[in-house]
Amino acid sequence: MAQKNMSLTKCPMPSLDPNYRNKVFEEVATGYTYEMAIEEARRCLNCKNKPCVSACPVCIDIPAFIERVANDDLDGAYEVLTKQTSLPAVCGRVCPQESQCESKCVRGIKGEPVGIGRLERFVADWHREHATEAPKMPEQNGHKVAVIGAGPAGLTCAGDLAKQGYKVTIYEALHVAGGVLSYGIPEFRLPKAIVNKEVENLKAIGVDVECNMVIGKVLTIDELFEMGYEAVFIGSGAGLPRFMGIPGESLKGVYSANEFLTRINLMKAYKPDSKTPIRHGKNVAVVGGGNVAMDAARCAKRLGAENVYIVYRRGMQELPARHEEVEHAQEEGIIFKTLTNPVEVLGFNNPDDPRDPRNGEVCGMKCVEMELGEPDASGRRRPIVKEGSEFILDIDTMIMALGTSPNPLIRSTTPGLDANKHGCIITQGEDGLTSREGVYAGGDAVTGAATVILAMGAGKNAAAAIDEYIKGKNA
Amino acid sequence: MFKIVKKQPLNPTVTKMVIEAPLVAKKAKAGQFIILRASADGERIPLTIAGYDREAGTVDIIFQIVGGTTMELNAMNEGDYLPDFVGPLGKATHIEGYKKVAIVGGGVGCAIALPVAQAMHAAGVEVHSIVGFRCKDLVILEDEFNACSDKVCMMTDDGTYGTKGLVTNALEQLILDGNEYDVVIAIGPVIMMKFVCMTTKKYNVKTVISMNPIMVDGTGMCGGCRLTVGGETKFACVDGPEFDGHQVDFDEAMKRGAMYRDFEAHKREETCNLLKKEVE
C-alpha cells in the first residue's frame, strides 16, 4: 500500500495560458500527468463508508478506482469505472463534481477534497491512449430495445443494456451521435474526438447508432414496436430554447445559445474553411448565468470578439454555472455584468433608405440594474429592478442562454404518452416508466434542462428497469 | 449515405435531384421539408420536398444556387452520395375540405407549390395555378403545373413569356372575375408572399404561405427559424413551415433572411473558384 499524501490542496490541473487559449478551440485543461495522478490518488483515504459514492448519480465505486490508480493498476481502475459509467472521459470533464462526489469527500472537511473528476478523466484518457484490447462483444440474449436520442441518457441506457446482451439500436435526429456532448459543449471543454471514441466503444459492444432519424417523423414509437423492439427508451433531451419575450428579439444578430453553439460545435463554423455561416461579433452580450452561457461567451471570445459580456440578473454568488467555468471565463477576459437585466434589443434603422443592409441589425441592448430582494420559491433571492437605472450596452450580437424545454416532437406524435405543462414526459418513480407500457424515458426529456451526469443516472436506472420488464414478460 | 439517382437542370440556376431515401419517401407529404448536408463537416440546409415516389423510395428536391452549400450540391452528379438526408420534417399541407383553391408560386418556390397543387388535384379539388418568373429563361415545371391544374396563369416580370406582370395582378383579376377560393396557397420569395397576402386580405380570402427561413437542426432546437405570427414567436421547423399568411410579420422575416447574405455571396464565389481549379 502506497503512503498517503496529506497535502490539503488538490494537485492543480495544468491548463493552457488564458491569453493563448481565448483565441483557439484547443482543450483548456490539459489533464494530469501520470505522476500527478499517482500523487493525487494517494490523497484518498479509502474511507470504509464511502460518502463520495452516495453522491454519485451513477454510483461509481470511487475509492476502489482511486486505490487502483495509487497502486499503478490503471487497467483495473478503468474496469472499476466502466462497471458503472459508459462515458468516463466525458464525466471526468463535465460533471459538477464539486456539488456531487467531491462535496462529500472527507478530505474536503479540512482542505480540498480529492480531485475525483480529474482522476476519472486521467484514467479514461490513459486507457484511450494505451489500451490495445478491443472491448468484448457480450453474448446476445435475443431481445431488441430501441433508444431515442444519442445523448448522455441514451448512450448510457444503450451501453448498460448492450452489456447485458440486448440488441440495442439508438436513433439520433442529428447527423452525429452525442447529443449535447456534440452540439452543445464546445471543443475546448470536451474534444469531439473523445465523444466519438466513447460512441465507438459502444458500437464495439454491438450498439447500432442510426443518425438522421427523427423519431416522431420518420418512424413513430408504435412503428418501433411493430419492428420488433420490446421496449423503447426516450432520451430526446431538452433542446427547445427559451426566449425572453422582450422587443427586438428577432433582430439580425440575436441568437439562442443553442443555435450559436450548434453552428460552432456541430457544424464547425469556427474553422476558417467551414461553409457554416456565423456572426463574428465585436461586442457580444450573452444573457444568462449557467454553464451554457459560459460556453457561448467563451466561444464568442474565441471567434474574435473584443468585448464579451455575461449579462445576468442576479449576483456573482448566484451564478448557476460551475465555479470552474466562471473562473475560466474570467481568466479569458469575459466581462461579468451581474445584477443587470435586458429590457429591449435595439436595432439599426436608416429612415432614409429602407434597403440599407444594416437595417434590422442589433446595435445595442437597453438594460436595467437589479438588486436582490427576499428569497423566492427557488430559495434564491429575487432580483428587483432599480428605479431609474436604465442604460444602453453597446453590442452587435446578443446570445440568449436562458435554458431550454423538452423537445416537443415525440410527445406530439405518441398517443398515450403523458407530459406535464412544461412539456416534460411524466415517469413513475426512478425507473423511468412512462404512461405507455414498455416505454421508458429519462434525462432532460423528463426533468427539463439538467446535467450530463443526471441524464446518465436516469439512463442507467431505466436500463435496469427495461431489463427487469423484458425478463418478466418472457419468464 | 443517400444516392443521387437523377440530376436535371431546370434552368441556369435551379436544379432538380432525385434522392434515394426510402424511409423519408414512405412518410413524405406535400408541404414538408428535409435537411441535407452535401459533405462531411458541411452546413445543414433545409429544402422543401418537391415530390416523392413511395414505391421507388425516392424524394425529389429542387434548389436554387444561392450559397456555398447549394453550389457544392449542384456540383455533385448522378451516382454520388449525400452523407445526410433527414426528414420528413415540419407539418404537411392541409388538403382536406377544400373545393376550389388558388396556388401561387414564384420562381424556385414553384417547386414547392407543385406538390401542393398535385395533392389538391388528386383530392379532387379545383386548382387554379398562378406561376411567376423573372423571364422566359427561368421558367420551370410548366408541363407539371398544366397537368394538375384546371387553369394556369403564367406570368413573367418582363413579358418574355406568358403574360407580363406580377402574380398578384393575375390573382386579383381571378378574384374579380368571380372565382371564390376556399384558400390561396402562396409559396415563393418572402416579398411575393407579402404582396399576395395584402391582395387576398382586401377580398378576405384565407391565405396560407410556406416559409423557408434560415434553419439549423429542423427539430425545434436552434430557434434560428423563428418568426412572428399573430404577435407570437413560432418556429417554422416544428410549428410550420406553413402559416396563416395574414398573421405573419413578413418585414421581420425578410430582414432575418438576409442575415448571412454577404457570407453566402462570398462562399459561393469561393466554392466556384475551387470548382474551377478542380476542372483545370
Brief synopsis:
Chain A has 475 residues and is of the alpha/beta class. Chain A is built from 17 helices and 16 strands. Chain B is of the alpha/beta class and 280 residues long.
List the helices and strands and how they pair.
The complex is a heterodimer of chains A (475) and B (280).
Chain A: H1 18-21, H2 34-41, H3 51-54, H4 62-70, H5 74-84, H6 88-94, H7 116-130, E1 144-148, H8 152-163, E2 167-171, H9 180-183, H10 192-204, E3 208-210, H11 221-226, E4 231-234, E5 240-241, E6 254-256, H12 257-266, E7 283-287, H13 291-302, E8 307-312, H14 323-331, E9 335-338, E10 340-347, E11 362-375, E12 381-385, E13 391-393, E14 397-400, E15 404-405, H15 409-413, E16 439-441, H16 444-447, H17 452-474
Parallel strand pairs in A: 1-2, 1-4, 2-3, 4-16, 6-14, 7-8, 7-14, 8-9
Antiparallel strand pairs in A: 5-15, 10-11, 11-12, 11-13
Helix pairs in contact in A: 2-4, 2-7, 4-5, 4-7, 5-7, 6-7, 8-17, 12-13
Chain B: E1 2-11, E2 14-20, H1 22-27, E3 33-37, E4 45-53, E5 58-64, H2 68-74, E6 81-82, E7 84-89, E8 100-106, H3 110-122, E9 126-133, H4 142-148, E10 151-156, E11 163-164, H5 167-176, E12 183-187, H6 190-202, E13 207-210, E14 226-229, E15 232-235, H7 236-239, E16 242-244, H8 250-257, H9 261-279
Parallel strand pairs in B: 8-9, 8-12, 9-10, 10-11, 12-13
Antiparallel strand pairs in B: 1-2, 1-6, 2-5, 3-4, 3-7, 4-5, 13-16, 14-15
Helix pairs in contact in B: 2-9, 5-6, 6-8
Give a written overview of the molecule:
- The complex is a heterodimer of chains A (475) and B (280).
- In chain A, 33% of the residues lie in helices and 16% in strands.
- Chain A contains 17 helices and 16 strands.
- Chain A has a 5-stranded parallel sheet with strand order 3-2-1-4-16. In chain A, strands 6-14-7-8-9 form a 5-stranded parallel sheet.
- In chain A, α13 (291-302) links the parallel β7 and β8 (307-312).
- Chain A is globular.
- Chain B has helices spanning 22-27, 68-74, 110-122, 142-148, 167-176, 190-202, 236-239, 250-257, 261-279; strands at 2-11, 14-20, 33-37, 45-53, 58-64, 81-82, 84-89, 100-106, 126-133, 151-156, 163-164, 183-187, 207-210, 226-229, 232-235, 242-244.
- In chain B, α2 (68-74) runs parallel beside α9 (261-279) and α6 (190-202) runs antiparallel to α8.
- In chain B, the strands form 3 sheets. Chain B has a 7-stranded antiparallel sheet. A 7-stranded mixed sheet of chain B has the order 11-10-9-8-12-13-16, sandwiched between helices. A two-stranded antiparallel ribbon of chain B has the order 14-15.
- With 280 residues, chain B is an alpha/beta fold.
- Classes of the chains: A alpha/beta (475), B alpha/beta (280).
